[in-house]
Amino acid sequence: MAFLADIGLVESGRGLCAITKRGRAFAETWPHEEMRARLALRPLVQAHWSAAAAAAHLADGPLPQEELARLLRNGLPGAPMRGTYMVEWLDIALVVERDTERLQVHLPARKTPSAEGRWRDTAGKRGADGGPGPRRQHRRRQRRFRERRDRECRDGKCQRNRPPATGFGAALVAVRALAGTG
Length: 182
Fold this sequence. Notes:
- By secondary structure, this protein is mostly helical.
- It has helices at 2-7, 21-29, 34-46, 49-58, 65-73, 82-92, 134-154, 167-179; strands at residues 10-13, 16-19, 63-64, 97-98, 104-106, 111-113, 119-121.
- Strand 1 and strand 2 (16-19) form a beta hairpin.
């Protein structure tokens, strides 16, 4: 909850937590318009120290996700997974990107959010190397995720109604509970 308080989604004090206006807006938007929620979260996470640290670590090129997590949690108290959770939040807030196998983390390509909440690929529809651009890669990742989720639900391994235990999912559940939307 400290991270959520640091980025402004919740306020904490005297052992109690209360959701902020930004936290409520994020929690209400996420289930229906994930990209708009991510764009709203982006400036909050960019103002956090972890965004600047990640940018510095990734300036020379991509790093394995575990390595970036280790570098971010270096010297921090608390659970060893804390760095992994930060990488997850940075990815969700579109501050960094993970490749399709989710093993390497890199800074986003040259693209900017438009006023409509959609990504405008300033490098064109193709990537710099001639491969698919970031927008197309994002759509492919979303499609693969939906296909895997639907396949797991058909096989009886559905995770949809099971609350996540840790990481972003647990934080989202907590924020939505405080907002009264989940």
